[in-house]
Automatic annotation (TrEMBL):
SMART domains cross-referenced by the UniProt entry: HTH_LACI
HTH lacI-type domain segment(s): 1-53
Record field: transmembrane: none
Protein name: LacI family transcriptional regulator
Phylogenetic classification of the source organism: Bacteria, Bacillati, Actinomycetota, Actinomycetes, Kitasatosporales
InterPro entries hit by this protein: HTH_LacI, LacI/GalR-like_sensor, Lambda_DNA-bd_dom_sf, Peripla_BP_I
Length: 343
């Protein structure tokens, strides 16, 4: 390159390394070097840049989902859209890692070490390993978890405000006259689930409706557990509305709708259904009442948080508001609004 530009190797290094401040290099000489670099298809070596400047403008994205979320039908795909757009606006390139290729959360004690190739890393997935995250945090490596985490101490995260969003859905149901409401959640007590459950209970309490653990139905295997017989039991006990937690598999929501169809129930005339989250991308049924998770906005907020950490600062927007979705799966309970509500 130096021969093609007609300059010394030192001059090439100064121009391409961005360290020519204070050195008298003419505009003409700069253009010769840059022109030669373009003709030769020169691309800076990120490893060398990292050694020289301690940064390479790369942000990692590490997924602990079973399949890396690059398919538009995957519930995590919109997160990546927001991540990509915000990273570009912040001047970062992305490097994608997948825990699923080495066993996901069971990949061993050092699966996340590869993330150190980047300046910092976003971590996706409900079951990212706590010990590995703690090791990165303790080492001072910039890492942000996409989704609220209770541990390890010092881990930065960006998540959706599921508590207030779930409370709003329940408030809407109570306003329509529902009093016997059941929450269905998968037997997987991660923060996203506990936040939804907390909002569910808070919504009932705020409306003066008794609540307790009996209001929550946990199922490890939704397809086996959510059956037409189970629905008929709930209806016989007075249940008029069912609220379902959304997960990345949407297992409970899919199983519940299949049971409703098999039981021949009319939704929402005979039974109201609400979804605490966004419906699956391939769901072709009526738009469910609930709330939408702002996945692209969350991805963008996570990148801003990570960029702040890489730059030596701290994130300032851990929670992103969810928007209530009126939908078409909720109506007043059979028999109308109770007289007590009208008074």
């Amino acid at each position: 390159m130096a021969r093609l530009a007609g300059v010394s190797q030192t001059t090439v290094s100064l121009v391409l390394g961005g360290k020519a401040d204070g050195v008298a290099i003419s505009v003409e000489t700069r253009q010769k070097v840059l022109g030669a670099a373009e003709r030769l298809g020169y691309v800076p070596d990120p490893a060398a840049s990292r050694l020289a400047a301690a940064r390479n403008n790369l942000l990692g994205v590490f997924s602990f989902t079973s399949t890396f979320p690059t398919d538009v039908q995957h519930s995590y795909y919109p997160f990546l859209v927001g991540v990509e757009q915000e990273a570009a606006s912040q001047g970062f390139d992305l490097v994608l890692f997948t825990g699923s290729s080495t066993g996901g959360a069971r990949a061993g004690a050092h699966a996340l070490n590869r993330a150190r190739l980047a300046d910092g890393c976003l971590v996706l997935g409900r079951h990212a390993p706590t010990e590995e995250l703690r090791r990165l945090v303790d080492d001072g490596f910039p890492v942000v978890h996409l989704g609220r985490r209770d541990d390890p101490d010092g881990l930065a995260w960006v998540g959706a405000d599921y508590v207030n969003a779930a409370r709003e859905v329940v408030t809407n149901l109570v306003a329509l006259g529902h009093r016997e409401i059941v929450l269905i959640c998968e037997d997987d007590p991660v923060p996203a689930s506990t936040d939804r459950e907390r909002g569910f209970h808070e919504g009932l309490v705020a409306a003066g409706v008794p609540t307790g653990p009996e209001r929550v139905h946990r199922c490890a295997d939704p397809e086996r557990d959510l059956t037409p017989a189970r629905l008929r039991e709930w209806l016989a006990s007075g249940v008029t509305a069912i609220v379902v937690e959304e997960t990345d598999t949407s297992g409970a929501w899919r199983a519940l709708n299949a049971a409703v169809a098999e039981a021949g129930l009319d939704c929402p005339r005979e039974l109201s259904l609400a979804l605490l989250g966004s419906p699956p991308p391939d769901d072709d049924g009526p738009v469910p009442t609930g709330f939408d998770i702002p996945r692209a906005r969350l991805g963008a907020a996570a990148v801003r948080a990570l960029a702040a950490l890489v730059g030596g600062g701290r994130p300032d927007e851990p929670l992103v508001e969810c928007a209530f979705r009126p939908g078409a799966t909720v109506a007043a309970p059979p028999g109308g609004i109770p007289a007590a509500v009208l008074r």
